[in-house]
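Quick check before the chapter quiz. The format below is the same one you will see on the exam, so make sure you can read both the input and the output lines.
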Amino acid sequence: MTSHELVAAWRAYLTDNKRRSPHTVRAYVAAAQRLVAANGLDDWAAVARTEAHHLRTFLAARRADGIGNASAARELSALKAFIAFARRESGDPDPAPPRLRGPRLKKGLPRPVTPDEAVNLTDLVDSLAGEEWIGARDRAVLLLLYGSGLRIAEALSLTGRDAMLGEVLQVTGKGGKQRMVPVLPITRAAVAEYVRLCPWPLSTKEPLFRGAKGGPLSPGMVQRTVAQARRALGLPDTATPHALRHSFATHLLSAGADLRSLQELLGHASLGSTQIYTRVDAASLLENYRKAHPRG
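Here is the expected output.
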């Protein structure tokens, strides 16, 4: 097998099996191309033998080329996913990627997860999962948090009745209060993919999202999965599952949504709970201003 065939197979897997966005496919394929070219890798076994010290050397060379911490963290996450795929392809019974922490990113004010970071998180939890259906499940859950603003408990309370999502979803929040939330096409596709792969029967009254042994998926498992992914990406500890809901609100507010509409979408009992996002958005604007202004 040639290096070109390796990269082509990786691209096909990301596109056809994982159904990644074109942006993610380009980034992950480019990272794989750089790794195989730099190390002369020409079969899955060779890629599978890539260890942490190899990645450290490779990333040091990339840093010498001028990439920053954030780019290096993204590159590392892409390469970890590629190596895990290679290890599965070569028959490794433990296809986990090398253990290597990404570069530390400068910590500033507490902030929501950016759109790129949210996409990277959802993609990486899928790639790091030991089984394909579990990866699809984790990605679907996180997209519901980020794309629809659900709390973890709300996403995990969905049942098989909710498996065929439409453009809106009725959820039951705190105090039994029901509300309607939008569902993005990417989220509908992710849930449909999970339903297709899930090995457990999804009856209308049983939980939609299942654990590895078929029981209800626990919030703690979602939190641990996100913690693993954020460490691989070099994101701060504030990049939690709840931060995805936080980001949903902040991004809508930045795009012009009014507070009353946002209150309804989030299921807040009082407008005061929603107003915190105006302060966070103002903090983000001030931080960007200071970075951009010549006198900042």
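If your answer matched, good. Residues 69-89 form the longest helix (21 residues).
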